[in-house]
Amino acid sequence: MDPIRNPYAPGAGQRPPELAGRQEQLSQFDVVLQRVSRGRPERSLILTGLRGVGKTVLLNALRGQAVRAGWGTGKFEARPDQTLRRPIAAAAHVAVRELGHAHSDQVDHVLGVVKAFAQRDTAVNAKLRDRWNPGIDVPAVTGRADSGDIEIDLVELLTDVGGLAQDLGRGIAICIDEMQDLGPDDISALCAACHEISQSALPVIVVGAGLPHLPAVLSASKSYSERLFRYARIDRLDREAADAALSVPAGEEGTSFDEAALELMYEVTGGYPYFIQAYGKEVWDVAPAGPITDTDVRVAVPRAEAELAVGFFGSRYERATPAERDYLRAMAALALVDRDGAPIGGPVESESGSTAYASARTHELDSVST
User: Fold this and answer.
1) In angstroms, rounded to a whole number, what is the distance separating the alpha carbons of residues 265 and 297?
2) pTM higher than the cut 0.85
């Protein structure tokens, strides 16, 4: 079929044409937005799940809901080699700009606080050329969010930003992807800030996304984090949602999948949203015409596996240490046979959230998520 009309989108964090199976999270977040805007108490939200289940896509969708509700929003991706100050300052800057507050003096004051917070990322005695400029054209405010203690400063930053939003009857949403990569001090500061703003009933929420061990990271930092956040485990799609993720985009392009093709697609993808898009793209390209059949799926499977082996799994395996590779091989071996030694296929998940997929047909390690 025409590859130009191929509707499937297996990009990193790229929104699929049909965001299937996530209506519950979207509806709950709409309630959160309305409650916070009316001064009602609500917890910040943490999305957790394995790689490939669509956490980033959902995070972006939730941010889009906040934007449509008139909120100020900002987003960044945490990195293990970067502290919290610069990215969260940039996110707060974007959020304040999105609010569009009518009183410029109040906006300038808050932007000055954001600038002061950001500039404390460098040493006090650093030369001017070494100071980071966050691109804010107002003077930095002295004595606010600039103590150098990240916990104190983050509380003051979010308090001032939240106060600005409260004046407008709206809110601020700070979205953080790969949240498990924040350092211990930054995680502690973020928990403390969320705790403070919730007690003050300020319209600020944090929406974080990370791997399955993120709740444990938060709990190790602050014991009250279990009650501070609402946790949503993002998992594989059930059969109905997986079928919709394939059928709805195909239908919009004037074609369809037959029942045998949908059944086989669910078997080979395991319901993982990223795999559904990756296999769907290859199936569309090899199918001569619609409706798409299970024969088309079988032809496309080796192509999809080859693509994923390089672009999705290969880099993770290459980054793994020798001990981690041994661990993954052991997981794959468990997925290959049952207790009686009979060949099987399917996922094996460790307590840390790592997953290995083994194909009983090819006896190859198909996927690794660490």
Assistant:
1) 7
2) no
